[in-house]
Specification:
The chain contains one helix and no strands. By secondary structure, the protein is an all-alpha fold.
């Protein structure tokens, strides 16, 4: 590592934040993405499974 380097690559420590703050940010981003995908899937399933109109 070059002189003055304090971390390898980027991660929670490499964000310039302390480990707990960086880990909290990365965890919240992961949870946000998972919830967005789940909400999209539920919306798709609701549209796909709605009753169809029957012509009389």
């Amino acid at each position: 590592m070059p002189r003055g380097t304090t971390s390898l690559g980027w991660g929670p420590q490499g964000l310039g934040l302390g480990y707990p703050a960086g880990a909290a940010i990365l965890t919240s981003l992961l949870i946000t993405v998972v919830l967005a995908v789940l909400a999209g899937f539920m919306a798709w399933a609701a549209v796909r499974n709605r009753p169809r109109a029957v012509a009389v």
